[in-house]
Amino acid sequence: MTVELRTSYLRSRRRALRALALAATWPALVQAQDTVPEDDPAAKGIVEKADQIRFPAESFEVEVDVTNLTDGQVTDRRKYKILSKGSENTIVQVVEPAADRGQAMLMRGRDLWIFLPSISQPVRLSLSQRLTGQVANGDLARANFAGDYRPRVLRTEKLDNTDCHVLELIAVDRGVTYARVLYWVRQSNSNPMKAEFYSVSERLLKTCRYENFKSLGGRVRPTRLVLQDALKKGEESILDYSDLKLRELPDRMFTKEYLRRL
Fold it and tell me: Of 13, 15, 166, 178, which has the fewest beta carbons less than 10 angstroms from its beta carbon?
């Protein structure tokens, strides 16, 4: 097991204990959620269109190069292959470094497991746990903002001289990656532009910029995500997406039994 994955596994145990403490504050967030309309067609439509631009609704595979930096200096590079079917089934395979090949994550709905060659049984993880650098498991394994959050339009404003909707997204339950998201979506074409990710305690965790829009998988999409730590200045991760292909993926692939054979 790599140092990062071993650390992630230990964090999962510690987070379980912290969850008991957070349980006292979560009802307040749920009460706040109840003030958000259950069905806001305009806001939901904006988020759904942005989701479709980020990734296809059809089954696909894509490669992701992750570069972690501190104060502009590269500290680590990793490469992953993502296989996704709809918005509920995803496999994330480690491609590089070569020493970590054979490691994979399986997401079904909001349930996530990691498979390690050195461990006979899969290990349960949360979507919010750190995978590498500023990248959480859910940042790679799940990109379903429309299904995971209840949105409302807060305002419109300019971002980089572009008119944008600014939406507030509130988590539908504790199983999603972030408790709250502020999301900037371009008014003219529904391109995602920027996101801010918040914890249950309303602390800003990190920001994301969607960049390098170009044709990928038959549609113009953001091919680069820049994730910046809001708590540690100078810490960031750059995700570069490439070689996106639409392909048929049978349901049997997205099972623990299948992942054990990879």
Answer: 13
